[in-house]
Amino acid sequence: QKLEDGLLSSSSISTEELKEAAGFDVNENESSVSITVVGASGDLAKKKIFPALFALYYEGCLPKHFTVFGYARSKMTDAELRNMVSKTLTCRIDQRENCGEKMDQFLKRCFYHSGQYDSQEHFEALDKKLKEHEGGRESNRLFYLSIPPNIFIDAVKCASSSASAASGWTRVIVEKPFGRDSESSAALTKALKQYLTEDQIFRIDHYLGKELVENLSVLRFSNLIFEPLWSRQYIRNVQLIFSEDFGTEGRGGYFDNYGIIRDIMQNHLLQILALFAMETPVSLDAEDIRNEKVKVLRSMRTLRLEDVVIGQYKSHTRGGVTHPGYTDDKTVPKDSVTPTFAAAALFIDNARWDGVPFLMKAGKALHNRSAEIRVQFRHVPGNLYNRNIGTDLDQATNELVIRVQPDEAIYLKINNKVPGLGMRLDRSNLNLLYSTRYSKEIPDAYERLLLDAIEGERRLFIRSDELDAAWSLFTPVLKELEEKRTIPEYYPYGSRGPVGAHYLAARYKVRWG
Ligand code: NDP
Ligand code: BG6
C-alpha cells in the first residue's frame, strides 16, 4: 500500500521508503565512507582533523556508514588512539546533554593501524581492515595526508596501489606546503599525478574554509551595492592582513625551511585576494570559480624585491616576562635570516584593478592575532564637508573591513553627523558583528573542508594550475631573497612589526588600517 501511495504521490514518500516498501534491503545499497588520517599521531590530526570529524558527526553530517582510521608509525592500540583523540574533542557546538554519549559513539567508529608510510604491505593490511568495516558495501575512501611533505609521495603511492577503494571513489586530501617554489611544486604535482588523477587530489588551504572567506563571494555577488564599487574606479587600495601574537612555537623546524611568505602569503592571503578580485564566475560550479581565480592570478604582476619588506622577531621582555626571539628556538639555526614577517605590494594588471595596490602583511609574534581584509575607498569628489569641517576627516574615506578572525565581523566605516545642534562629523561603523547577529557558533574551517571532500565538492580546494600561478608570482622574489641572504628587519616580540612596512605602504600612498 505504501508503495502504491508513494507512486501516486512521490513527494510524500522518500526514495528510501519506496525501495524499502518494494522489498529492497536499503542498508545493503548504502555505500560506506572510510576516512584514513595518515599521520594520526601528529599535531594537526589531534588539533584539527579528529575534532572536525567529531563536529561533523555531532551535526549529523557524516554518512551513516563511516569509519575513521588513524595511520602512523607510532605503536598504538585502538583504545590508545581513542584516548588520545578524546582529549581534543569538544562539544563546542552546544552543550546538550547527549554530547558525552555522541563522543562515545564517535570514538567507537575510530580505529588505528600502525605502519610505515612507504610500505605496500602495511597499506595492504590497512586495506584488509577497512574492508572488514565496510562490510561488503560500496566503499568510498578518503585519505588525509597529515604528514611532512617529504613523505607525501611514498604514502600516496602505497595508499593508491594497496588501499584504494575497490568500488567507489578514492580521494586524497593533501596538506600544505605544496612545494617551496615553482619547480618543487611542479615536481610534487607531477609525482602525485603518477598515482592520482587531478579529480582525486584535494589540496587544502584551510583559509578557504573560513566562514568570512566563503562569504566574500556572497557579499560581492548577491548584494547590489558592492559589485558596482568593486574596481579601480572606487577602490583606492586593498589590504590583506594576517597577524599572530605568538611565535613559531614548536614548529620552528618546519618554519625555517619556508618562512612567512610561503607559510601565509603565497597561499592563505593570495587565495583571499583571488576570491576578492576575480570576475563574476559563470556559475557556482567549482571549475567556473577556479577558472576565474586562475585568470586573476595570471593577470598579476610578478612580485619585485623592492615591493617586499621582511622582518624577524627578536626576544623581548615585557612586564617581567621574557619572550624568546625566533632564533632562540633550538630547531632554528642561530644565524637564520628566515622572515617571520613580510609586507608586500602586489598589482593586478587588468582593466578592473589597474594601478590599485593590494598590500599584504603577515607576521608572527606581533601585538595581536587577527586576519582581515580592508578595502579603502577613494575620496568623495568635491566633498562639501571637507571645506567646512577641516579636521582629520578631510582624509577619512569609507573603509570596508571584513574581519575573518577573531570576532568575525563585516563593518563599513562611514562619516556621520554627531547628533546635536552643531555640525560635527565623526567616523562611525555600520557593523555586522557575527556574535550578536547569529547565535550559532561558526564551524571550524576544517569541518567545512572535510565535508566538501567527502561530498566531492572541489570549489574550496586548489587546482594545480592555480598553484602554478600562485608560485610563479612569488618564486623569483623568494629566490632573490635567499640568494642575497637579505637580512630581515628585527622587531621585538609582541610589537607591531618592522617600520619598513609603513614606508612600503607610504610609497603607494597607503596607510595600514
Ligand atoms: P607532525 O610533524 O606532527 O607530523 C605528523 C606525523 O607524521 C607525526 O606524528 C609522525 O608520526 C609522522 N612524521 C613526522 N616526521 C616524520 C618524518 N620525518 N618521517 C616520517 N614520518 C614523520 O606534523 P603536523 O601534524 O604538524 O602537520 C601535518 C601536515 O600538515 C604537514 O604537512 C604540515 O606542514 C601541515 N600543516 C600543519 C599545521 C599545524 O598546525 N600543525 C597547519 C597547517 C598545515 P609517526 O612518527 O607516528 O609516524
Ligand atoms: C597555517 C600556518 O597554515 O596557518 C601556521 O602554517 C599558522 O603558521 C596557521 O599559524 C594559522 O591558521 P589559523 O587558522 O589559526 O589562523
TrEMBL record:
One of its GO terms (molecular function) is glucose-6-phosphate dehydrogenase activity. Transmembrane segments: none annotated. It comes from the Eukaryota. Residues 218-512 form the Glucose-6-phosphate dehydrogenase C-terminal domain. GO terms for biological process: glucose metabolic process; pentose-phosphate shunt, oxidative branch. It is an enzyme of class 1 (oxidoreductase). Pathway: Carbohydrate degradation; pentose phosphate pathway; D-ribulose 5-phosphate from D-glucose 6-phosphate (oxidative stage): step 1/3. Its EC number is 1.1.1.49. Residues 37-215 form the Glucose-6-phosphate dehydrogenase NAD-binding domain. Signal peptide: none annotated. Keywords: Carbohydrate metabolism, Glucose metabolism, NADP, Oxidoreductase. It catalyses: D-glucose 6-phosphate + NADP(+) = 6-phospho-D-glucono-1,5-lactone + NADPH + H(+). InterPro entries: G6P_DH (IPR001282), G6P_DH_AS (IPR019796), G6P_DH_C (IPR022675), G6P_DH_NAD-bd (IPR022674), NAD(P)-bd_dom_sf (IPR036291). PROSITE patterns: G6P_DEHYDROGENASE. One of its GO terms (cellular component) is chloroplast stroma. Catalyzes the rate-limiting step of the oxidative pentose-phosphate pathway, which represents a route for the dissimilation of carbohydrates besides glycolysis. NCBIfam families: zwf (TIGR00871). Belongs to the glucose-6-phosphate dehydrogenase family. PANTHER family: GLUCOSE-6-PHOSPHATE 1-DEHYDROGENASE 2, CHLOROPLASTIC (PTHR23429:SF11), GLUCOSE-6-PHOSPHATE 1-DEHYDROGENASE G6PD (PTHR23429). This is Glucose-6-phosphate 1-dehydrogenase. It comes from Linum trigynum.
